[in-house]
Amino acid sequence: MSAHPDTAAPHDHVFLGENHARNERRTWAVIALTATVMVVEIVAGTIYGSMALLADGWHMSTHASALLITALAYRYARRHARNPRFTFGTGKLGDLAAFGSATVLAIVALLIGWESIVRLRSPVPISYDEAIFVAILGLVVNLASAWLLRDDHSHHHGHQHHDHAHDHDAPAARAGHRDNNLRAAYLHVLADALISVLAIAALLAGRSYGWVWLDPVIGIVGALVILRWSWGLLRDSGAVLLDYLPAREELPSEVRAAIESEHDKIVDLHVWQLGPGHHGAIISILSSDPKPVAAYRAQLADLHELAHVTIEVQRRAA
Question: What is the CATH architecture of 19-241?
Answer without folding.
Answer: Up-down Bundle (1.20)
